[in-house]
């Protein structure tokens, strides 16, 4: 076979594979959204679910998913940034650094059901936090933290060495160099990475079944005191997220319109994840322009 | 007027097992430009970077020997590296302005070192830009990104940035090698201007540049200092044969 033919064949194969993947994704998305879109209405998005009657909504679940995301970020961002900065700027290469990195990698590839059961045994029972948003956020931290650490580490490592040296050569401390010169340059990558990583919070179900729980108390959306047991903001209340709700409705839903609810909720979930990803990309670009003052 | 020079005694730098700089002793006088020349990999850049302990930031580098400035040995483990670096400015081969505005690039260092008053900072910015012959070109866009400047302007900005923290010595690592001839000429002019106040040490691959800007020249080869002396003498009447060979372009 001549080099030219080989080139053509290779190109054709690659294009076909790419087209197949795009079609698969488009088909999947189209199917989920097409099936669910008809069921989505303002009422569906805001009202509470019904157990045995038709016409229940996903309001509390939608809120829980978003609130859980915020809680998880509050825990993971400081920890992840700190560890990432340490790993890329302070840790000396050696056995300790390598083993930390290994632990971080292993942590991120843990099966989520195992993390869920671990959360049930340790966070929910042993520490006594019960089925709560807080327990769920801690379980999700197990997944998000490694990502956060790696994102920060890589973003900082991507800063040109001359930028760091220029700051040090002016007599600035290492800490000031990191915060004032390196962080602004790496911020777009860190923000984009964080948002993409937290998209996983929306989709996670297995780890939350046994930590955040499979039910929501009857939330009172007029009560914003975080200590009240019926307040949506109380982090120590059980909270069923959208992904968990889909799973539950599908496997044991008693409402006559369970199938429609699952389809509608799935569509909402997919649309949220998509929105989240697009926002992340847009936000990353905006930040990049702002920090480098390029138009 | 600064009266500080730099005195290097038996400086060796190791990258792991490899000895990149071999027991070099060299004196640098105030208000003089010293050019470090030699073929690629001869250790001159490594030598330069050890003068402000910039090699510390790379893992696996070991430095021995003494570097004296103002009666302090830079290589002493008790020396505050952060304070030390304020006294020794540095300019790199490729312009590396901060990803900030032109104004911030200059004001960043002095502000960190305790100057808070806006009027004072404004004064420093203008003064440094003027001395770097950049004021006229930038005074109307001080708060625009420094990255929008041309390469030559960026390099002059980097020089302005380094003098803003009032160093005594300025290290330059091939400061014009990434620039066009016109920008190069401007940088050389600037070096001649700055040497009235500072001790300047410049690494260069360009023999003509070394001959034009420097008062003294040191020739490095294979990590060793082969020969040093007045630039005129080194270029017209070198003692060592390898110096002669390098300068006349027979190797390197």
From TrEMBL, chain A:
It is found in: Cell membrane. InterPro entries: MetI-like, MetI-like_sf, Phosphate_PstA. The lineage of its organism: Bacteria, Bacillati, Bacillota, Bacilli, Bacillales. Residues 62-280 form the ABC transmembrane type-1 domain. The gene is pstA. Belongs to the binding-protein-dependent transport system permease family. CysTW subfamily. Its main location: membrane. The chain crosses the membrane at residues 12-34, 66-88, 100-123, 129-147, 181-202, 261-280. PROSITE patterns: ABC_TM1 (PS50928). It is a multi-pass membrane protein. This is Phosphate transport system permease protein PstA.
TrEMBL record, chain B:
Keywords: ATP-binding, Nucleotide-binding, Transport. PROSITE patterns: ABC_TRANSPORTER_1 (PS00211), ABC_TRANSPORTER_2 (PS50893). Gene3D superfamilies: P-loop containing nucleotide triphosphate hydrolases. It comes from the Bacteria. Residues 6-247 form the ABC transporter domain. Transmembrane segments: none annotated. InterPro entries: AAA+_ATPase, ABC_transporter-like_ATP-bd, ABC_transporter-like_CS, P-loop_NTPase, PstB-like. One of its GO terms (molecular function) is ATP binding. The keyword ATP-binding applies. Pfam families: ABC_tran. NCBIfam families: 3a0107s01c2. This is Phosphate ABC transporter ATP-binding protein PstB. It comes from Paenibacillus mendelii. The lineage of its organism: Bacteria, Bacillati, Bacillota, Bacilli, Bacillales.
């Amino acid at each position: 076979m001549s080099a030219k033919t080989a080139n053509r064949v290779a190109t054709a194969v690659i294009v076909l594979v790419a087209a197949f993947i795009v079609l698969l994704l488009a088909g999947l998305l189209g199917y989920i959204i097409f099936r669910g879109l008809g069921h989505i209405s303002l009422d569906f998005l805001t009202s509470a679910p019904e157990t045995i009657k038709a016409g229940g909504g996903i309001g509390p679940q939608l809120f829980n998913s978003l609130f859980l995301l915020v809680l998880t970020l509050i825990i993971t961002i400081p920890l992840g940034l700190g560890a990432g900065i340490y790993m890329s700027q302070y840790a000396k290469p050696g056995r300790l650094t390598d083993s930390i990195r290994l632990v971080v990698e292993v942590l991120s590839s843990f099966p989520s059901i195992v993390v869920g059961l671990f959360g049930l045994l340790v966070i929910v029972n042993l520490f006594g936090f019960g089925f709560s948003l807080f327990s769920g956020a801690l379980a999700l931290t197990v997944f998000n933290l490694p990502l956060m650490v790696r994102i920060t580490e890589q973003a900082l490592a991507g800063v040109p060495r001359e930028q760091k040296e220029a700051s040090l050569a002016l007599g600035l401390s290492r800490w000031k160099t990191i915060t004032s010169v390196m962080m602004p340059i790496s911020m777009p990558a860190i923000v984009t990475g964080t948002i993409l990583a937290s998209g996983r919070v929306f989709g996670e179900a297995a780890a939350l079944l046994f930590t955040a729980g499979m039910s929501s108390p009857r939330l009172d959306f007029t009560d914003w005191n975080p200590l009240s047991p019926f307040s949506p903001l109380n982090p120590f209340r059980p909270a069923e997220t959208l992904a968990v709700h889909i799973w539950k409705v599908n496997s044991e839903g008693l409402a006559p319109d369970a199938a429609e609810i699952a389809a509608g909720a799935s569509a909402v979930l997919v649309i949220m994840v998509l929105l989240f990803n697009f926002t992340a990309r847009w936000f990353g670009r905006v930040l990049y322009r702002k920090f480098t003052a390029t138009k | 007027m600064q009266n500080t020079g730099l005195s290097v005694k038996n400086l060796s730098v190791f990258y792991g097992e490899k000895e990149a700089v071999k027991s070099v002793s060299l004196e640098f006088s105030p208000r003089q430009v010293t050019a470090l020349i030699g073929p690629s990999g001869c250790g001159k850049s490594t030598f330069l970077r050890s003068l402000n302990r910039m090699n510390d930031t790379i893992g696996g580098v070991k430095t021995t020997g003494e570097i004296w400035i103002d009666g302090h040995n830079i290589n002493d483990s008790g020396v505050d590296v952060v304070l030390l670096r304020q006294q020794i400015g540095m300019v790199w081969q490729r312009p590396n302005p901060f990803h900030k505005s032109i104004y911030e690039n200059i004001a960043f260092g002095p502000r960190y070192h305790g100057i808070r008053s806006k009027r004072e900072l404004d004064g420093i910015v203008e003064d440094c830009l003027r001395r770097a012959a950049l004021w006229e070109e930038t005074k109307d866009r001080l708060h625009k990104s420094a990255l929008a400047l041309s390469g030559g302007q960026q390099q002059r900005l980097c020089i302005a940035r380094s003098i803003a923290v009032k160093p005594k010595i300025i290290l330059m690592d091939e400061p014009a090698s990434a620039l066009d001839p016109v920008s190069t000429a401007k940088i050389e002019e600037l070096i001649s201007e700055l040497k009235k106040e500072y001790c300047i040490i410049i690494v260069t691959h360009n023999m003509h540049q070394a001959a034009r800007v420097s008062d003294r020249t040191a020739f490095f080869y294979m990590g060793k200092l082969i020969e040093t002396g007045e630039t005129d003498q080194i270029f017209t009447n070198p003692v060592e044969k390898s110096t002669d060979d390098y300068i006349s372009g027979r190797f390197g």
